[in-house]
Sequence to fold (326 residues):
Amino acid sequence: MENSDKIAVVIPSYKVKEHILGVIAAIGNEIDVIYVVDDCCPVGSGQFVEDNCLDPRVKVLRNPQNMGVGGAVMTGYQAAISEGATVIVKIDGDGQMDPSLIHDFISPILKGDADYTKGNRFFDLEEIHSMPKMRLFGNAALSFLTKLSSGYWDLFDPTNGYTAIHATVAKHLPFAKISKRYFFETDILFRLNTLRAVVIDIPMDAKYGDEESNLKISRIVGEFAVKHLRNFLKRIFYNYYLRNMSLASIELPLGLLLMVIGGGVGLSHWISSSSAGIATPAGTVMLSALPVILGTQLVLAFLGHDIAAVPKRAFHLTRTKFKKTE
Fold:
């Protein structure tokens, strides 16, 4: 870490009075400023910190209305950017995230290996036994959907909120468009992919105490599915048709078309044969199966290209060199 690097921590604060002071106290001296964002907390977490925390690095920010975790993080990002931060770390105030890991999150960014780092609680197979089974299953399902919608096929644990981002990258995020609530962590990955930012996972252990999660899986399944589909379609359009054209741009629509045609023809002949009580000729079966097989191969080829297209060069390094040449 260079002396000129300014590291900021953002802590969204909502109903975390019992844990917030302990989280702040555990943050090491490598951090220059700590933004506690009171997200219109009904128990006054922000005022509680101001009244009881003597750490001179702490600054309390207040949202006039509850904006969710995403809105609170955006408030912290904007304050950190305006005050010249180099890297911005986000941790929760409920004590589930170990502040001693902050160095692990900022180091790849400062070395130029990443633009954004996020925690991965699934790295150690022995430790994940402590995770509630429903949360374990939900994260596995969401991880697959996030790979499709964000394009970061090498990441896991998409809802993990322990993150760090280079300020240069954060400046280019469309703050007004990013989802403000529980979809925030997933939505920001999609936005980062549109910038071609490099994102990597940081292994970490999960800690579960007496804190109570506000996230109810049953409430967000439908919403998440719709938003994942929206982001997937947007990403495909941006990356394969608007910004660039390649063989993969042809493979996906052609593959899907062949699968639909083959499936439609096969279903039509099956219904006709069933109604007439006669067996479908082998040639007709092949006529239906061949487009489906070819279409499936084309779609798999597209996925192979998409997986290989994960960003590899840090965005903030490119922007820094560009500014130096101006």
Remarks:
- Residues 247-276 form the longest helix (30 residues).
- The chain has two domains: 7-240, 245-308.
- The first strand starts at residue 7 and ends at 13.
- The chain has eleven helices and seven strands.
